[in-house]
């Protein structure tokens, strides 16, 4: 029997419950059944968003774009002051822009941004102060303006500040690319020097079209709810830069069958060739290694590395960035070897023999990647040099040996034996020669700089008794004006 709950609000699970009512004066009681039923419709809401075709698509009814971090807005700055803002954990920085909208007296503004990892970038040095107002977006992919006029930084345009400053004699500032690859999450700091009004200084993180964070998934207050969605995909192709539109219908259903739904529109945009990451200019491989993109990727890959076991991706693809144009998805580089997002990729090779064709297994390949934007017909080319080089000398064993001299000449004709276990990792038939007095030997497999040297000991005892041979040789050498006769190893 449950305790007395008279006058209390009680919470009961769904279903039938027995209820007993007792008269405290007479002791009379009665019984009954109480049926608890869920009549509440679960609540769900949706938000629309946009991504590029290489971005991960968040799976949540409500998605928030947190790509803009406001560090200071509508404040009066005096002297040197710091302002901070916190970003959620949302991957790493792939690109960052800075919005600068200030009204200062001139000759004193200075702007420094510091990342959560501690990297500081002097965006606007005090040596460039002098404009009473600034209204510009610092963007390392923006236009370059090198006149040094204040008007160039007051129209709200995206301007490459680093190259613009360098163009009129102030290099080394506004290097926003220094933040790339660092974690986004954490506290970002603005250090502002000077006196005036900060209308807005913000950071814009451009991971795709925005930096999207999924809100908490909705549930039913009575529990035991299920959340599902169904997609209808409309392929657009090129119009307006849109690749496709996904109409996603979310349904939240509770255990008793009550449900509600909402519709979410996801616009997926095409990308430009500049959004890809291209392989390094120089790739070096060992001799006889294959130079196809697949073989290069295999050489640099570490197949033992695994991703989070809770994800569907278990290969980190370390070799792809050396071999293909790539983009990041799920925290891993993905190769572009045919088509992605209306970008068509192909390559051509020019082969050159190394060392004039005499080096076994050595070669150079100049590979040119061509990316065609199917929608705009723009072309981008990227060249890389692939070198398969012999960087190891041959191995062999030079055995010591002994011969006897001519008793009258204190000299001997020597035939140096072949080296033992002569081997080269690149050349199937390495050559060798013998040089130097008393047999210093060197081998070369055909490539300049790749040789191995060993000393061998050639012992030449005198004929006859040791004493007689020594005296005879001494006399002969004395008569020849002490001219020393050496072993001629070339005969």
Approximate shape = extended
Please give the alpha-carbon distance between the first and last residues: 116 Å
Strand order of the largest sheet: 5-13-7-10-11
The averaged pLDDT comes out at 81
Largest sheet: 5 strands, mixed
The total count of strands amounts to 31
Structural class: mainly beta
Percentage of β-strand residues: 35-45%
Helical fraction:
under 10%
Highest CATH level, the class of the domain at 68-205: Mainly Beta
Quaternary structure state of the chains depicted = single chain
Per the CATH scheme, the topology name of the domain at 68-205 is Jelly Rolls
Please, how many helices? 4
CATH architecture of the domain at 68-205: Sandwich
Give Rg in angstroms. 39 Å
Q: Would you identify the regions where 5 or more consecutive residues have pLDDT less than 50?
A: 438-449, 462-491
